[in-house]
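Lay summary. Proteins are chains of building blocks that fold into shapes, and those shapes determine what they do. In this project we predict the shape from the chain. Here is one chain we studied, written as its sequence of building blocks.
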Amino acid sequence: MTQSINLPKLDDFLQELATIQQQGSKRIAFLGSRHVPLTHQLLIELLSYALALSGNSIITSGATGTNFAAIRGALRADPNLLTVILPQSLDKQPYESREQLENVIHLIEHSENDTLSLAEASSLCNQEIISKCQQLICFAFHGSETLLQTCQDAEEQRKVVTLFYFD
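And here is the predicted shape, written in a compact code that computers can read:
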């Protein structure tokens, strides 16, 4: 009996290797769950801070939890290296997010999505974010359908995806 082994193509490996070894700055997206323990938020903030301090551009959305932590870290390092893309208008964001988002220089709102559900708007927003990045760092639970779909979409677009699970 023969068994098929599903291995990635050589060009996929070479592209990922080239991205990882690339000298200079990269466009790195942070996405993840809103439901993140404080200790995990601090680690995400530190990672975002270190990557921005190294000259990398950080792209994320405006939700609480993972994205909120990534925003804090990038703002501390260099506000000019942070881009936040909102799934809907700023008015639709939670109050605690709006206060922090006022400090973001590069803020993109999508008020045309205000009539959509948050899940639909977030899915569209995530697609825009991965189209603008070279690498995606995602923090999710095994049941985070929208985030896991975003990771799969990013891999299909040949982005380097680093996925951390909380559970």
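What the prediction tells us: Residues 89 and 111 are 4 Å apart (CA to CA).
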